[in-house]
Here is the input.
Amino acid sequence: MASIQLRGVEKSFGAANIIKGIDLAIADGEFVALVGPSGCGKSTLLRIISGLESATRGEILLDGRIVNDDSPRDRNVAMVFQSYALYPHMTVAQNMAFNLKLSRKDKQEISRRVEEAARMLDLVDLLERRPGQLSGGQRQRVAMGRAIVRNPSVFLFDEPLSNLDAKLRVQMRGEIKLLHHRVKTTAVYVTHDQIEAMTLADRIVVLNRGVIEQVGTPLELYNKPANLFVAGFIGSPSMNFIDARLKDSASGQKAELADGTQILLPARPFASKSGKITLGMRPENIVVERESGNMAGTVKVSEPTGPQTHLVVEAAGTDMLAIVRADFAARAGDGLRLSFSPNTLHVFDAESGRVL
Amino acid sequence: MANRTSRGLPAKLGLALCYVAFAGFVLFPLVWIFLMSIKNFGDIIAYPPRFVFAPTLSNYAEILFGSEAERASGQVPDLIKFLMNSVIISGGAVILSALIGIPAAYALARRRDTTSDKLRFTVLSFRFAPELVVILPLYVIYSRVGLYDTYVGMILVHQLITLPLMILILASFFRDMPIEIEEAARVDGAGIWTILTAIVVPIARPGIASAMMIAFIFSWNNMIFGLVLAGGNTRPVTMGILQAMTFDQIKWGVMAASAMVSAFPGMVAAVLFQKQITRGLTLGAVK
Here is the structure.
């Protein structure tokens, strides 16, 4: 087990700066997810930690030791690849034993550890099969087994579930979480799926264009996004944004929308140089009623999901998504009223995108 | 539903005629030589050519089991010696090329920069140069350093044929292999040689086999190196044909039979491993 520290890590391929100065400390035993849109540098960052890629600038420390010049072999990190990258010519058992064999462990210990990992991952009956004879989920488990069996100081996951179908993905997500509870090895998990990051990680690092937008626990990111990017990225369905102007009134600060609607803001002094703000409201926090409420809207689309229904409502000149109970009957064209509890509103500076 | 590939009768007939014409063009020399190899001398020189004749295996008997004089003295017939020479030279050349070519191809496949592109082109350029360009200087060098008429010398000069083939075919093959598997091995603690021997070579076995097969056939079919650089000890089977030109006569039947025997391994390999060979020759052309 080990802590990980990144100090001013940068990476460029030719003229392209993929990673532009990352500082990050990951505690021993922590499960950290790196999320962001494709091309944000999350996979590159993971590969830099693994040693498959070198950093152009900056330092990588494992357990306080600078490992920039160490090969992957010397870093004792295990990695699970998106494509699983199993050795096709070896059996499941040989796949899992490869690292142990290379580090010259004796035969008894190898078979003991392979069996132990196989039992943990429900692979006992598959040990003599080859990867080609396994299903996607089974291959995924072998890839995990190959990582656990060596008892590494750090687990690195590179989008390990994105090749699985939706149902299996949820199941494997649970298994990964259980596994981490059991082995307590420091883990860095790259994904573009924010739900995966939310459900698995102790802390989430949101990356965008090679820089960290925000680091925090899943609920911190959900409740207190630092900027528009994080606010839009975390949460599903994603947050609604409306442009507005700050307005002072006797009852407190308000946001005035383009159509003149005024929305009461939380009781906190907000200040924006230009006075222009972006108001963010999560679909699950919008109160939808038939008669009362401070904003009028018209239902455009109604999407039942089973437990709830998603309504696309045209209000104040934009489309907003609101989540209502499944028994709330609404059809396209229905008139509704929306209201917002001040404490659920997120207020961002329209120019910098930062939270106010 | 109409079959999109269905054609009218005239088109089909035309196509069939083209096939027949092409097959005739390719196979006629082969058939001609084969017929010649089972004719006796009188049938061979007859004009107009005879297509109905009493076949004989005497030509084959002479080259495979020796002439009467050779049999009497217990000598091994020349062609058998030449066959053995070819097996040693082509086999040795292919094995040596595999030993050098596999790591070289792997390096070329995985190192993508201008240096490796230039190296690849250099390797390719060995195939552009006609062998005649190098053969005369090589003859002089070989005579001086004692490589003339030795197996080592022949195996070395055959690298000009087999090594570029191995490298170019395998580099394309390796490039198409998913790199994640090798990265997984690196993370597992494998060094470059372990990755090559324990991961890449076993996975690439079919590609390596077809590359070796192709290199072997090209090497086997070569004649010019044998003509200039091999003497009595190392003459390859392709030179056996010339043995039929003796001081007092040209044994056409024996020559044809020798040609058949020397072409035989290549033809058998081509038929048996058609798929792998086509794949080997077109690797990298598709992607």
Chain A has a mean pLDDT of 92.
